[in-house]
Design brief:
Layout: E1 2-7, H1 10-20, E2 27-32, H2 35-40, E3 42-43, H3 51-60, E4 65-68, H4 71-75, H5 78-84, E5 88-90, H6 98-101, H7 103-112, E6 120-123, H8 126-134, E7 140-144, E8 153-156, H9 159-172, E9 182-186, E10 191-200, E11 204-212, E12 215-217, E13 221-224, E14 229-232, H10 241-259, E15 265-275, E16 278-285, H11 292-296, E17 300-302, H12 304-312, E18 321-323, E19 327-335, E20 345-349, E21 358-362, E22 365-368, E23 371-374, E24 378-386, H13 389-407, E25 414-415
Parallel strand pairs: 1-2, 1-4, 2-3, 4-5
Antiparallel strand pairs: 6-9, 7-8, 7-9, 10-11, 10-15, 11-14, 12-13, 14-19, 15-16, 17-18, 19-24, 19-25, 20-23, 21-24, 22-23
Helix pairs in contact: 3-5, 8-9
Bound molecules: adenosine monophosphate and glycine.
C-alpha cells in the first residue's frame, strides 16, 4: 500500500514513522512534511489545505490511502476532495469535522444525543453575553466558536473576569478563530484525559488514551499551548476507562451521526474531564492529538496501516493492531517565547543520535544539506518507552539531555516542562 500523510507537525512525523513499519505499507509520502519526514520518507511541497493539488499528485503517485493530520485540512474539505477522487481516506469530511471546527455545532450535537458535557449558553453579541453573565454565578469558561489553534478558550474564576474577556473579544472585534459566536460554559472539575477512537463511518472503536500538558509552564502555569508533553497509558483512571467511554460517549455519538446522515471516518479525539459522575466531554477533535500521537505511536504493534485503511473502506479491523504494555512519555522542546510567537531556529543537526528506545519527532521544519531549519514554536517532541511510567519518564528526560548536548548553543533557545508524567509521590 502506498500512503500519503498530510500535515507538517511532529504528529505527522510520528504517524508516518509508524505507518512505514506496517507490514502492508509499501511507501510513505508526506505533504508538506518536515525535516523528520524528509529523512525517513519523501516529502511533497504542497500545503495541507490544498485539496485539489494534493489529489492531483496523489493520483499520479498511485496513492492507496490518504491520512489527514491537521484540523485545518479537515475544515478545508481535503477529505471530501480525496473521496470524490475515490482515494481511500482516513479523516472526516468537512461536515462531520464540525465536531471540532464549530464548538457550537459540537455542543448542540451532544445536547441532542445525550452525550455528557458541560452546560453552556451560546451568545452572538456583547449585549447578549452581558445579559447571560448577569445571571451567572461561579467560574465560567469562555470559548470562541471556531478553530483558534488553542487560543480560543479562557477558563475564568468568576463572572467579572469572564465579562472582561467577552468585552475584550467583542470590543476589539477580534474573537479568536475569526467568528462572532461565543460559548459561556460551566467549569467542570476533575482530571483530564484524551481518549482516541477510530471511526469507520458506522462505529467508533476505542484506540488508546493519553494525558497531555496544555499549559506552557511547570505545575500547569502560564498560557495554554498546543501541548507541551504527554504520556500513555493514563495513570489513575478506571481500568475499564475505554468501556465506559464507549458506552457513554462513542456509542451515542455514532448513533447521533447516523441519525443526522453524517459519515465519520477517521480519528475522534475525545477531550474528557473525568468528574465525580464519570466522563464529560470538554471538546472533540476530528483528528489525532499533538503531542499525544507521538506517545501513542511508539506503543502500537501490528499493522497500523491496515487498521486505518480498513476504517477508510468502512469496515475497521481493530484486531490488526495492539498496544505494548510499555509506557511512553514525550517532552516537547519549544522556542522560549512559545506560544506568544514562534522564533525560527536555523542550522540544527538533522541526526540527533538518540540512544536505544528514544525517538525524536520534528515540528514544522525543513531539511537542507543535512541541516534543519525550524519554524520555531514546538520544535521537537522527544519520546521514550519504559517498563513503567517512571522509567519512561526518566528515559524521556535522558533524551532531552542527549539532544541538548547535540544541539550545543542552540539548546539555549529552547524551553521545556520539567514535570511531564511526574506523578504524585503516592503513585
Ligand atoms: P479546549 O480547547 O476546549 O480543549 O479547552 C482548552 C482547555 O481548557 C482544556 O484542556 C481544559 O483544561 C480547559 N477547559 C475547557 N473547557 C472546560 C470546562 N468546561 N471546564 C473546565 N476546564 C475546561
Ligand atoms: N494536544 C491537544 C491537541 O492536539 O489538540
Amino acid at each position: 500500500m502506498r500512503i500519503l500523510v498530510i500535515g507538517n507537525g511532529a504528529r505527522e512525523d510520528a504517524l508516518a514513522w509508524r505507518l512505514a513499519q506496517s507490514p502492508s505499507c509499501e511507501a510513505v509520502f508526506v505533504a508538506p512534511g518536515n525535516a523528520g519526514t524528509a529523512l525517513r520518507h519523501e516529502n511533497w511541497p504542497i500545503v495541507a489545505t490544498e485539496g485539489r493539488a494534493l489529489v492531483a499528485r496523489a493520483k499520479d503517485a498511485q496513492i492507496d490511502l490518504a491520512v489527514i493530520g491537521p484540523e485545518t485540512a479537515i475544515a478545508a474539505g481535503v477529505a471530501d476532495r480525496f473521496r470524490e477522487a475515490n482515494i481511500a481516506t482516513f479523516g472526516p469530511n468537512r461536515s462531520a469535522g464540525r465536531l471540532e471546527s464549530s464548538k457550537i455545532f459540537a455542543k448542540r450535537f451532544m445536547e441532542r444525543h445525550g452525550v455528557s458535557t458541560a452546560k453552556a449558553r451560546i451568545v452572538h453579541s456583547l449585549a447578549n453575553a452581558e445579559r447571560v453573565l448577569d445571571d451567572w454565578s461561579g467560574a465560567c469558561v469562555v470559548k470562541a466558536d471556531g478553530l483558534a489553534a488553542g487560543k480560543g478558550v479562557v477558563v475564568t474564576p468568576d463572572v467579572a473576569t469572564a465579562r472582561a474577556v467577552v468585552r475584550e473579544w467583542y470590543g476589539s472585534g477580534r474573537i479568536p478563530g475569526g467568528g462572532s459566536d461565543v460559548l459561556l460554559e460551566e467549569k467542570l472539575d476533575g482530571r483530564e484525559v484524551s481518549v482516541f477512537a477510530l471511526g469507520d463511518g458506522k462505529r467508533f472503536v476505542p484506540f488508546a488514551s493519553a494525558c497531555d500538558y496544555k499549559r506552557a509552564g511547570d505545575a500547569d502555569t502560564g498560557p495554554n499551548t498546543g501541548g507541551m508533553g504527554a504520556y500513555s497509558p493514563p495513570f489513575g483512571f478506571p481500568g475499564d476507562l475505554h468501556d465506559i467511554v464507549r458506552e457513554r460517549i462513542l456509542e451515542p455519538v455514532a448513533r447521533g451521526l447516523a441519525a443526522e446522515n453524517e459519515r465519520y471516518v477517521g480519528a475522534l479525539y475525545c477531550g474528557l474531564m473525568w468528574t465525580a459522575d464519570g466522563p464529560a466531554v470538554i471538546e472533540f477533535n476530528a483528528r489525532f492529538g499533538d503531542p499525544e500521537t507521538q506517545v501513542l505511536m511508539p506503543r502500537v504493534r501490528g499493522d497500523f496501516a491496515r487498521a486505518l485503511v480498513s476504517a477508510a473502506h468502512g469496515a475497521l479491523e481493530p484486531d490488526s493492531i495492539s498496544f505494548a504494555d510499555d509506557a511512553c512519555v514525550g517532552v516537547v522542546l519549544a522556542t522560549a517565547d512559545y506560544p506568544r510567537t514562534s522564533t525560527p531556529l536555523a542550522g540544527l543537526p538533522a541526526v540527533l543520535g538518540l540512544s536505544e528506545g528514544k525517538l525524536a519527532f520534528w515540528g514544522g521544519s525543513t531539511l537542507r544539506d543535512g541541516v534543519v531549519d525550524s519554524k520555531g514554536g514546538r520544535v521537537l517532541t522527544l519520546t521514550a518507552l519504559g517498563a513503567t511510567l517512571a522509567e519512561a519518564r526518566a528515559n524521556a528526560y535522558d533524551a532531552v539531555d542527549e539532544v541538548g548536548r547535540r544541539l550545543g548553543g542552540a539548546a539555549a533557545s529552547l524551553t521545556y516542562r520539567r514535570d511531564i508524567a511526574a506523578l504524585p509521590p503516592t503513585a
